Amino acid sequence: MTVVPVPAERLKTIANTRPGVHTVVEHVLHLPELCPVTHNPMPGSTLTLRYAAGGRLLELFSLDAYIDAFVGHPVVRDMEFFVQTVAQDTADAIGAEVTASADVRFKGLRQEQRVTVVARPEVG
After folding, report:
1. Among 31, 38, 42, 49, which lies 20 to 30 A Cα-Cα from 55?
2. Contact by Cβ (8 Å): 107, 42
3. Which residues span the domain enclosing 39?
4. What is the pTM of this model?
């Protein structure tokens, strides 16, 4: 039986030392090649995560490791599902609404794709 990795387990947060100060955080992640077959997304593709900081913030190094866990993932295969999954996982991790916007370039296509998802925490 193959065990499907659960990327969300890699996400860590840190305490916001100034939760009373209105702060908006944006993480702009340069996406790696996620599919070993199609070699998509192409270099230059990004995913932006935006949220109003509350008590918790996304920890940078674990966020990179989390995204890397999707490389060759057997279940999360299309970019729409990927962005939906990342938005929901990060919203659950920090306990706040997250807007995830991906700007994706594809090999072999004459188009780009923009996917935007707004996710609210579903846990705790």
Report:
1. 31
2. yes
3. 7-119
4. 0.91
